[in-house]
């Protein structure tokens, strides 16, 4: 029953406030004013709750005025193993909204944002170097074999630690996946995410595996931008 409810909550649906949807929820063939651009209609709308397009109830809940309803939906989603941050947030604007009210249920969602798929569970052991605690890598597909994972890990460790394959030994590992589409949508990147968590209503986010993983993956790539555009201005502000 809970799984069925979760499927309903994550199913993309239109909003009944959408000018392209009639009262019966059926796609309208024409708009009230065909000559007026749809974008302008939405901008002039007085409804602040309106999220255009097809989105799940979980995503739409981010604009709900009732924090009780939002927290209830978070609680339901957290009961399901498949749920992760990407079920709610589709871009960094959505993440920014969630960061404004960091509740215990939100923190549980962040902590459980890693999913162990059937592909992950089939990966038992790979070549590993004893001084490495974690290896992260990006790919466009959730399909991953043990052989592919082994080759990627060997390459990443060799590049990062400067060790050869002879220095590595087969070790049992735990593989999990994290959907970060919300981070990279609309030409955004990790620097934009850092700006958002800097203004978070709670510091608990800094102690999560989510942030540790993102730092592991993006820190070296964006160190210059983070240091000069965020850390330096922040330090100067504190000194003045």
Structural features, described:
The protein is mainly α and 240 residues long. Among the domains are: 2-111, no CATH class; 118-172, no CATH class. It is 46% helix and 3% strand. It is built from 11 helices and 2 strands; from the N terminus they run H-H-H-H-H-H-H-E-H-E-H-H-H. The chain has helices at residues 2-9, 38-43, 57-60, 67-78, 92-99, 104-111, 118-121, 146-161, 181-184, 190-198, 209-239; strands at residues 125-128, 169-172. Strands 1-2 form a two-stranded antiparallel sheet. Helix 5 (92-99) packs parallel to helix 10 and helix 10 crosses helix 11 (209-239). The longest helix is centred in the last third of the chain and has 31 residues, at 209-239. The radius of gyration is 22 Å and the shape is globular. Mean pLDDT is 80; it is low at 20-50.
């Amino acid at each position: 029953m809970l799984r069925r409810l979760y499927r309903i909550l994550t199913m993309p649906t239109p909003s009944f406030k959408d000018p392209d949807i009639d009262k019966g929820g059926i796609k309208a063939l024409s708009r009230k004013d065909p000559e007026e651009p749809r974008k302008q209609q939405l901008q002039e709308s007085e409804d602040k709750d309106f999220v255009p397009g097809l989105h799940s109830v979980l995503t739409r809940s981010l604009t709900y005025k009732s924090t009780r309803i939002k927290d209830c939906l978070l609680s339901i989603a957290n009961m399901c193993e498949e749920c992760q941050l990407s079920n709610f947030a589709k871009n960094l604007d959505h993440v920014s909204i969630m960061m404004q009210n960091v509740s215990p249920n939100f923190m549980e969602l962040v902590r459980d944002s890693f999913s162990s798929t059937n592909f992950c569970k089939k990966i038992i052991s790979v070549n590993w170097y004893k001084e490495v605690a974690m290896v992260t890598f990006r790919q466009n597909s959730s399909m991953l074999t043990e052989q592919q994972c082994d080759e990627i890990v060997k390459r990443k460790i060799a590049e990062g630690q400067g060790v050869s394959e002879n220095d590595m030994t087969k070790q049992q590992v735990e593989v999990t996946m994290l959907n970060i589409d919300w981070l990279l949508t609309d030409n955004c990147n990790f620097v934009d995410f850092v700006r958002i968590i800097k203004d978070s209503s709670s510091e608990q986010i800094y102690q999560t595996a989510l942030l540790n993983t993102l730092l592991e993956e993006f820190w070296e790539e964006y160190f210059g931008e983070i240091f000069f555009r965020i850390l330096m201005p922040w330090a100067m502000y504190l000194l003045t």
